[in-house]
Known about the structure:
alpha+beta
Amino acid sequence: MKKILPVVLVLATVAGIAWFYQKTHAEEEKELVLYGNVDIREVNLGFRVAGRLAKLVYDEGDKVKQGEMLAQLDDEPYRNQVASAAAQAKSLRERLKLRETGSRPQEIAQAQSLVREREASASNAKQLFQRSERTLAAKGISSQERDNAEASYKEAEARLASARQNLALLEAGFRAEDIAQAKADLAQAEAALASAELQVKDTVLTAPSDGVIFTRAQETGAILQAGTTVFTLSLQNPVWVRAYVHELDLGHIHPGTLVEIYSDSSPGQPYQGQIGFISPRAEFTPKSVETKELRTALVYRLRIVVDKPGDGLRQGMPVTVKLAKDFPPSSLPATPL
């Protein structure tokens, strides 16, 4: 009996070790570990117009808020363009008002007086012509004098017709086509004014979102072309992790799956995140990503959105992503970014 007891104890110990190993090994097999790198969006900032760089407010490493002014160009040339465009628009606006208002009452009254004057002249010329015809029949004047009287009468009639037409034009005002042309000219001038005013606004460079100045590429006094990079801004949000999952493990994850992200600098303080995008196309593992699988194995790219990344995650930092293969579906909405 004493000999059997040690054997039983040994067998029990071996069984316990085997059970513990199987349990631990099963937990290890259940855990899915991915490897990737932090991916922070960067944007190159520049002016939409050309000019001389007059002011730089921030330097590399400075934090900025959305809407804050980062730099400014010398805006005097653009302000002069605004003044010129404004004067042109004002001139055309007054011309349109003249077209729409029509002739002044004094001009119409003057034309009416001219018509009455020429009516009197035509009437007198007509009487002279008629008298000359009667006198010519009595052989009191020559044919030449009669012809001169007729020419004077016709000239007076023509001058009267011209005065009446001029009065009609003044009373009718400008044609609809003239007014439409004036309106089109004014619209063009106002568009030029708006463009000039926008160029003045474009001489101020503002931050499109919160972030950190990564690169300051220019100095005050530089002559810049439109689009030249002045700052490179590293955005604070969103912060992503670009990771890759083996084809065999693809069925265990989905957009919205919660994960924990570990960095080498703070392995005991994981970041929370969720899978926001799974590539629909297979590819070979990038050489910069270290995985336990063969590098020639097909993988699928993941984009993991980090919740509250803080300042601990930097661009390109290698991280480890852990999640369970049998992870329950997340109640959070998927973020397919």
